[in-house]
Amino acid sequence: MGTYPPRECGIATFNQDLFNSSQKFLAKSTNCKVVAINLTSLDTYAYPSEVEWTVDQDDKNEYLALAKKFNEDPGISGIILQHEYGIFGGKDGRNILDFIENCNKPIIVTLHTVLPSPTESMRRLTKRIIQKSNMVIVLTESSKKMLELVYPESKNKTRVIPHGIHDTEFASTGEAKKELKLDESTILTTFGLLSRGKGIEYVIKALPKLIKKHPSIKYLILGETHPVVRRNEGESYRIELAKLVTDLELDSHVKFYDQYLSLPDLIEFLKATDIYVSTSINPHQAVSGTLSYALGTGRAVVSTQFAQSNEIITEETGRLVPVKNSDAYARVLLDLLNNKAKLNKMHKKAYELTRPMLWSSVAHKYSQLLYQNILPPVKLRHLNKMTDNFGLFQFAQIDVPNEKHGYTLDDNARALIACCWMNSESHGIEMLIDIYLGFIEKCQLENGTFINYLSSQHKVRTDQNDDEDLEDATSRAMWALSEVISSEFASNEAKKRAKKIFLSALPNIKKTHHIRSTALIIKSYSKAMNSFSEHSIELEAIIREYADALIEKLDSNGSKSWYWFDSYLGYNNGIVPESLIIAGEITNNKRYIEKGELTLAFLIEKTFSSTRYMPIGHADWYEKNGLRSYFDQQPEDPASMILALISAYEITHKERYKNLIAICFSWFLGNNSLELPLYNFQNGGCYDGLHPDRVNLNQGAESLVSYLLSRLAINKLTI
Fold first, then answer.
1. 24 pLDDT band (50/70/90 cuts)?
2. What does the angle CA 131 – CA 136 – CA 142 come to, to the nearest 5 degrees?
3. Three-class DSSP category at 597
4. Residue 161 CA: distances (Å) to CA of 29, 247, 425, 631
């Protein structure tokens, strides 16, 4: 979405290049379409077939209508929007908010301009765009740093994808010069739509000094006047440049090409170029497509200093000069032209270093980001396959239930929670709730306590139940029961059964020893309080007692550099700080929330980069003062972190938590160490883990339901 050719605009060219590369890269898997922004209702263009919709930039109703149309179209997965303040109408282009704020589809916004000191109007507009976008893209690292400084809410939401370049063969200048009848000339080139910000006059003023040493110089100025500039001031800038050329007696050395060049013609001129001159006089310009194309063709560049040029131009590929400095242009251009061997070496290095910027690579990165921000529809095919009329099987061999290992209370409790979060209209949910609730009933002993393991013959697996600590399974069962009791969709009969099991277990839930089971009890009792008015005082007292116990653990084990409840980070870590934040909300105790946020911040520091979630590996726990483990990564951990971040966001309303939720969920979709999806888009299952070299292709119950809980929790948050 943005401007599009034949409208003459840098964003239009960018959009077309991205579209063509994306469509080629995605092939038949995705159909890309374009929303083209028109300057006015009178400006109509003969758009190519990919332009499906057009919007008059000044017509707010057209933005609203487009948002409504997109919301109602199930075939539209997401939108990539190219943003520039001058192309969307209204003050600073604020009409785009009418679309962004009313469109429910995932939106990725590329900010082509990032200003260090925006006006207050621009600041408010940009902040709102960032908040409403799923992801923000900038084209340079310096733009990312500046954006995060000016707009802190963009942290963990911003990615850098460079301006793309076209895949051309590297060639020396000779053949192209011959084709263009520029043999025997030394070619300097600048191209782009002309406007006063181009600063071309400073290069022209440098030419007399250059020509004394290199009389064969020809300076080619490629491109017509920007259409908007032409409307406002006609060709005055071009006329001024032409007069300057005549006054300096440079008519035989400067040639204007007053036309909008096709891509093949542009590449031909660049191949004939000895040095490309990038002339912007705006030090805050984020990026120049013309600079990218020149380097990508394999040409040395002399450029003024701005965000992209400072990053991309090195001593190996060109030179930087201050803005508005003709003497500097003359000095560095002479230096390069005096050493043809060095110049040719620069050409080759520019070509080599820009290969990662190919449009094919850029399109791949955009599609990956969009893919990772589209919430897949909830599919229950694998859940149904893993469930018989007794319960949810524990393990799978690939996607086939491995029945010999039987069932666990832990997995069936998780599945029951997931079903309670689904819409009542989801096919078969009532039956699944009945099966999983029935399994919990079968796991409860006469004294109210629970066992965890049942065999495939539905018998108690005494060895495992006696040998293993069942605190986690018991506390997770209590959480599941509390979800049924408070569910909007569970039947009255299911709620009645759940209350009976919950109350029978309540006297037997003694003070737990483990931080995760303590946290799960806090979560379950907090959820159940509103449904048990006669027990609410008792439940709140236990919540306080357990929260105090966690803080006592934190005080005993935590330090400034290791602010955690244990001397190690293990599995399902997110539940612990989440429980303190929930306890603080329930009991109106700010200290609990403060401690919960601080420990969550510690966990975030240990498991997030700026773009990726990296759970603690299950091969070895992360011991204090030791090395953290990265593998085997398992789905339970991102699920736990997502639920913690959602609780933190809903209780504190801090935007940074919401940004991290999206990053964490994208772990399932391929934004992980191996860049491979864990979610199975075909059956709705989830692979069991991420090894250093591969994905564990088994799709067991814990992984499956961890994904479902994550997906459904995000859906509830969105609603």
1. confident
2. 120
3. helix
4. 22, 43, 41, 28
Q: Which residue has the tokens 């612990």?
A: 576
Q: What is the mean pLDDT of residues 88-110?
A: 96
Q: For residues 99 and 107, what is the distance between their CA atoms, to the nearest angstrom?
A: 10
- What three-state secondary structure class fits 137? strand
Residues 659/157, Cβ–Cβ less than 8 Å: yes
Phi, psi of 358 (to 5 degrees): -55, 145
Percent helix, percent strand, percent coil in the chain, to nearest 5: 50, 15, 35
User: CA–CA separation, 186 vs 188, rounded Å?
Assistant: 7
- Provide mean pLDDT across the span 51-57: 96
Give the separation between CA 191 and CA 256, rounded to whole angstroms. Answer: 10
- What mean pLDDT comes out for the span 251-280? 94
Could you say which DSSP state residue 45 is in?
-
Does position 719 have pLDDT exceeding 60, yes or no? Answer: no
Of the CA atoms within 13 Å of residue 621, those in its CB half-sphere come to 10
- What's 218's DSSP letter? E
The structural architecture, per CATH, of the domain 173-357 is: 3-Layer(aba) Sandwich (3.40)
58 CB burial (10 A radius; 0-12, 13-18, 19+): middle
Alpha helices in 653-700 (DSSP H): 655-669
Give the pair of three-digit tokens for residue 177. 């010069």
Mean pLDDT along residues 262-282: 95
Residue 312 pLDDT grade (very low, low, confident, very high; cuts 50, 70, 90): very high
Q: Is the pLDDT of residue 300 over 90?
A: yes
pLDDT band at 500 (very low <50, low <70, confident <90, very high): very high
268 within 8 A of 179, measured Cβ to Cβ: yes
User: Residue 193: what residue type?
Assistant: L
pTM of the model: 0.83
Query: Which of 24, 666, 4, 5 is CA-nearest to residue 361?
Result: 24
Tens digit of each residue's pLDDT (9 = 90 or more) over 331-351: 999 999 999 999 999 999 999
Check: CB of residue 690 under 8 Å from CB of residue 678: yes
CATH 1.20.58.220 fits 378-510, yes or no: no
Nearest to 502 by CA among 469, 535, 470, 471: 535
Backbone Cα Rg of the chain: 31
For the chain, the domains span: 10-160, 173-357, 378-510
Give the mean pLDDT of the chain.
93
Dump strand ranges (E) for 494-589: 568-569
Same fold, 173-357 and 378-510: no
- For the domain covering 10-160, report its CATH number: 3.40.50
Under 8 Å between Cβ of 62 and 91: no
Q: Give CA–CA dist 100/578, Å, rounded.
A: 31
